[in-house]
Amino acid sequence: MQENISTQLAKRIRLTALELCYHKKASHLGGAYSIADILAVLYAHHMRIDPEQPDDPARDRLFYSKGHACTALYAVLQESGFFDGLDLHEDFTTNGSYFTSHVNHQLPGIELSTGSLGHALGVACGVALAAKRKSRGYRSYVIASDGELDEGSNWEAILFAPHHALDNLVLVIDYNKLQSFGRTDDVLRLDPLGDKFKAFGWHTIEIDGHDHALIDAAFREAKQTSGRPTAIIAHTVKGKGVSFMEDTLAWHYKSPNDAEYAQAKAELEAAV
Amino acid sequence: MRTTFIKTLCEEARKDERLFLLCGDLGFSVLEQFADQFPERYLNVGVAEQNMMQVAAGLAMEGYSVFTYSIGNFPTLRCMEQIRYDICYHRLNVKIVAVGAGYAYGPLGVSHHATEDIAMLRAIPGMRVTAPGDALETELVTRRLCRDTGPGYIRLNKAGEKPVHRVPIAADCLDMIQVRSGKSTAVLTTGAVLGDMVDQVDARALEFSVYSTPFISDISPHQLIELCQRYEQLITVEEHQLNGGFGSAVVERLADLHAAGKISRFPRVRRIGIPGTFQGFAGTQEYLRAKAGIVLPDKQDQHVDR
Ligand SMILES: Cc1ncc(C[n+]2csc(CCOP(=O)(O)OP(=O)(O)O)c2C)c(N)n1
Ligand SMILES: [Mg+2]
Description:
The complex is a heterodimer.
Chain A: H1 3-23, H2 29-46, E1 61-64, H3 70-79, H4 88-91, H5 120-134, E2 140-145, H6 152-163, E3 169-175, E4 178-179, E5 182-183, H7 184-187, H8 193-199, E6 203-208, H9 212-223, E7 230-235, H10 258-270
Parallel strand pairs in A: 1-2, 2-3, 3-7, 6-7
Antiparallel strand pairs in A: 4-5
Helix pairs in contact in A: 1-2, 1-3, 1-10, 2-3, 2-9, 5-6
Chain B: H1 2-15, E1 19-23, H2 32-37, E2 42-44, H3 49-61, E3 65-71, H4 80-89, E4 94-99, H5 117-122, E5 128-130, H6 135-147, E6 152-156, E7 177-180, E8 185-189, H7 193-203, E9 208-212, H8 221-230, E10 233-241, H9 246-259, E11 268-274, H10 285-292
Parallel strand pairs in B: 1-2, 1-3, 3-4, 4-6, 5-6, 8-9, 8-10, 10-11
Antiparallel strand pairs in B: 7-9
Bound molecules: thiamine diphosphate and magnesium ion (MG).
Magnesium ion (MG) binds near residues 145 and 178 of chain A.
């Protein structure tokens, strides 16, 4: 893996997300920043996709369950060439545009509309099961947030995937320890999260979700794992990359004012 | 509306110590005042709406009067069976509050468009479905539901609704409330679309009466009979699917009255609402309402083309 490529991509994801939230007064930057590095590594080095053929049956699929943090996904799809001919910056959240502020499958490169939490993993189980039944080689990735693990629907799917030996399915948990109205530890404790996944029969990997080499290694390890699905528990920081956004609840909601925008932009640009 | 709701709920909670508030991990900058004043009667259950409804049922079984709070589809469609079986069948004292009615969260997308909830909830026996039109109506339905002992639903818009009522509403009012008087046409609305319709009537100098319907489940036969006598045409307006919604409720009751011989002439009823579509694009509430065709016709005999 050339770490430089994904590092630069992550930087551009964060900058694009900042522009979108600043100019369109949108929310959820915190959750976009905690997942930016994972998306960068996934799209730079692992997803077998072709923007010329977004519906290619052989493509890898990403199901982005935390649909509120759409700016990071839109940014990486833009960087990957899926939105050529569309104007993300102009059209984000504007009247009549498919660039809604929760992930929208009407856009190329997006498998599933999300925004209501706890939907994607079950759908991805169905898609992964279909690959097994039809002997297809594509892989299914799911990105879920920690807060949405509160939803019972996820735990039904967490039971299902190992039972059906879905080793073509990878679940990444963006474990940033914050949800909408408090810390996960205070609202509904998830720990010991790794032990839970292990007990449910998942191949479980815990990593620092901002370390590109570790993220890359985890996706590789998942590919080599057979007979069971892989859960990558990525320990992350909500708002990662902008000092005053890191680990704060308010940046789930706020959109940056002029001064905050300028400072965030300067900090992100200064990063290597 | 959400601030009026929480302010009213706090006032009621001071008088009634059975009041309990659950939220599904949201309500930032809205619910804090309740949480701070009544920490023993407040809980964030997490992003787990189905469990929230079941916990509410359990608390209600033990004597609490429980309000559950979340956005649009999450405390409603997501939990239909918990609502039907656990809460309504057992006639438990649980009130569901959903914020973001219709297209109030327009740019967020279809996940946040709450456009089928009236139809689904009003089908359940014993559920009192309400949709306030402005702040005064919000206070009215909140106080009313605090006094009820069975299941209820409050469909809140979000914020910034135009105040329509200028005089206080009687506390025991369950009827449609007249806010404009005109001639042969009556516009019957439910929810926050009221302000928009009143604006349209005023701005276009339409000679329509306008009535607001905060209590959708309580449409009274007497009032409908009276409306049939006074008006040639009724126009129902809702920020909701036409299938099964408020307009359907009106037509169903009219049909029953007609079949029972209680109205001799079936009025011309025009239903305005969402014509069975998802609007998968972004847009302000105003934009999406217009796109869905939630606009008053000019004259009583003009047909709405879809
Ligand atoms: C079913 C459902 N319930 C509630 C919400 C409202 N909501 C939006 S984001 C969020 C939680 C945010 O925390 P988390 O899931 O951990 O996401 P992240 O920290 O990655 O932003 C909630 C409750 C929702 N979108 N869907
Ligand atoms: Mg989180």
